[in-house]
Design brief:
It is a single chain. This protein is of the alpha/beta class. About 65% of the residues lie in helices and about 10% in strands. The protein has a six-stranded mixed beta sheet with strand order 6-7-8-3-9-10, sandwiched between helices. The protein has a four-stranded antiparallel beta sheet with strand order 2-1-4-5, covered by helices on one side. A hairpin with a 2-residue loop joins strand 4 (about 400-405) and strand 5 (about 410). Helix 7 packs antiparallel against helix 8. The protein starts with a helix and ends in a 7-residue tail after the last helix.
Length: about 600
């Protein structure tokens, strides 16, 4: 990707166009032709005006007016045809580029560590995949032909401006040069940095908006406002301050640009008054004056197009940079000699991992063991490293120090398919796709039969859920108001894990969103899921892990205690303190004195 970064934006995009890049080049040629054709009608309009003035008042001698009029119409039609063909070619190529770029991003994201989206932010990833690729489509389909026209048309305009009367041409050109100077103040290198800050501000808002939407139930429950989400409000405030600051900074420059680019007619009037010096205007001066007055509006349009082309060029460079920010993230390495583990015994040896270069270690010199068919629980205060440890076992990330082995084989030496076939991961907040129940389960086993799906749902205590759905297992979630509660979604997720029949199961706070009734059903589903499996369970509800074969107590990224429930209570350490606090919490009743 480093070589790609050194390439110009256009050639980077052409790498995604494939065979359709020829259409882009054809579009540019046609756009160049339209840049000239757009001016030709004005030439014939000038001829009409010239002939009309020359024969005044006997207009019967104006024998070429009809011919010149039809020539103006003909060139206008040729312009529209060439412009249509140019846009058609550019759109076909642009759709291919945007599609290939989006596919390339998604294929690359699929290879990246599962946790990369948490580091970058799901809102930022979504915006890059959807909006940055869409910017490339707009650039190639519309802006690029405009770039060619913006280059060709001014040259043709200068020729025409000086062809008929160099004095009037100079009068038109003078305000354009001044306007261009002011435009460069807005569209220069400083604007490129401002564009980067602008896009970053939008990404930050997108990230925080996602978190805000997820937290709306809490906000509404406790009657809070947006001010409860300080980071979201801060991102909005910073975006607003930046936009206001940038607008104020450009106000005078934009005012002068608009004033000059629209003032060519004023220069023409001043020149005409100077040339006539209070006397009668000659026929030649009058003809040229009328022509240039008619011609100047296209100058304004062209200059505005040049300005927006410069802005869009910066947008596309920034978009490519943001796309590359994902493409340059290295996927987890795949071993050349893939090893097959002997069993599912999990062992972490002296493992250290940090989420950022300057961040404190999430886990530090961590060691633990989960033997075959054991239920191993990870407990501890929030932020103590439990989830990080579980994610490292599933190789969501690679350890920075130490090793993680499954069946005696380092997870880095196992093939991706081999590793994922051996592990089922039930997340704290299980996500179901907007597809049917059956399709959601087939994610774990694409060739599963309907019988296997129903057996997995039955084992996960989902029979009642399926009975109440309008189309049973073929009901599409989210369609026609069909939604499931948090506990119901969790049981569907467990059914998916049961269908997979992986020998190693990782449960991350899997009962967090279940009410008491659902929790009892979820626990029964767990009992089915964990039969003949090695289970690693993260839990805050300590009652769910009393019968675990081994409990590891985490604090500040390392294990401070380990053993069975009764043994840990007898030691009077962190686990004993947590258990007492948990018992006090479940005994607490509304109305008790505090």
């Amino acid at each position: 990707m480093n070589g790609q970064k050194r390439q110009a934006a256009f050639f980077v995009l052409m790498n995604y166009a494939g065979k359709l890049r020829i259409l882009t080049y054809l579009s540019l040629i046609l756009a160049a032709i339209t840049g000239i054709l757009a001016l030709m009608p004005f030439v014939y309009i000038w001829k009409i005006i010239k002939e009309a003035i020359e024969v005044m008042p006997d207009f019967s001698q104006a024998v070429n007016i009809a011919h010149n009029g039809w020539m103006a119409v003909g060139y206008s039609l040729l312009f529209m045809l060439a412009y249509f063909l140019s846009l058609m070619c550019s759109h076909l190529a642009a759709f291919r580029v945007a599609g290939n770029m989006k596919k390339g991003l998604l294929h690359h994201i699929a290879k990246l560590p599962v946790g990369f989206a948490d580091d970058m932010g799901s809102g930022k990833v979504r915006r890059i995949v959807m909006e940055s690729t869409a910017v490339t489509e707009t650039f190639l389909a519309h802006n690029l032909p405009d770039v060619v026209q913006a280059v060709i048309t001014p040259f043709a305009m200068v020729v025409i401006l000086f062809l008929f009367d160099w004095r009037f041409g100079l009068a038109c050109l003078l305000p354009l040069v001044c306007a261009f100077a002011f435009m460069m103040q807005m569209a220069g290198p400083s604007m490129a940095e401002d564009m980067k800050r602008y896009q970053s501000a939008l990404e930050n808002m997108s990230n925080e908006a996602v978190e805000y939407v997820r937290g709306i139930p809490v906000v509404k429950t406790f009657g809070q406002t947006v001010f409860s989400f300080h980071r979201f409000k801060k991102s909005i405030d910073e975006y607003g301050k930046f936009c206001l600051h940038y607008t104020v900074e450009c106000r005078k420059t934009m005012l002068m640009f608009e004033l000059l680019v629209n003032s060519a007619f004023a220069f023409l009037i001043c020149l005409t008054l100077f040339l006539t010096r209070g006397g009668a205007a000659t026929q030649g001066i009058l003809v040229n004056f009328l022509f240039y007055v008619i011609f100047t509006p296209i100058i304004t349009t062209t200059m505005m197009r040049v300005m927006y082309v410069a802005e869009n060029g910066m947008k596309i460079k920034d978009a490519i940079t943001r796309v590359n920010s994902i493409l340059e993230i290295e996927p987890l390495s795949e071993p050349k000699d893939k090893k097959i583990p002997a069993g599912v015994r999990v062992e972490m040896k002296d493992v250290t991992y940090c989420y950022g270069k300057e961040a404190k270690p999430a886990v530090s010199h961590l060691s633990l063991v989960a033997d075959r068919d054991q239920i191993v629980a990870l407990v501890g205060p929030s932020g103590s490293g439990k989830t990080t440890a579980a994610e490292l076992i599933a190789r969501f990330f690679d350890v920075q120090e130490g090793s993680v082995t499954i069946g005696g084989v380092d997870v880095r030496d196992m093939g991706k398919e081999e590793r994922m076939n051996r592990i089922s991961y039930v997340f704290q907040d299980s996500k179901l796709l907007k597809r049917s129940i059956a399709d959601n389960l087939r994610i774990a086993k694409p060739d599963a039969t309907e019988k296997e799906i129903r057996e997995a749902l039955h084992a996960a205590q989902c029979d009642e859920i399926i009975e109440h759905l309008p189309n049973g297992i073929d009901t599409v979630l989210g369609a026609e108001g069909t939604y499931l509660s948090g506990g119901e979604q969790q049981r569907i997720a467990i059914a998916r894990a049961i269908l997979k029949k992986a020998p190693l199961v990782i449960l991350d706070e899997a009962t967090a969103f279940a009410d008491p009734e659902n929790e009892a059903l979820v626990q029964k589903a767990f009992a089915e899921l964990t039969k003949h499996c090695t289970v690693i369970m993260i839990a805050h509800r300590l009652s769910t892990i009393r019968n675990a074969d081994k409990i590891y107590v985490f604090d500040h990224g390392t294990v401070v205690e380990e053993g069975k429930h009764e043994d840990l209570l007898g030691r009077g350490g962190l686990y004993s303190t947590m258990w007492k606090e948990y018992q006090n919490a479940i005994r607490w009743k509304v109305g008790e004195a505090v």
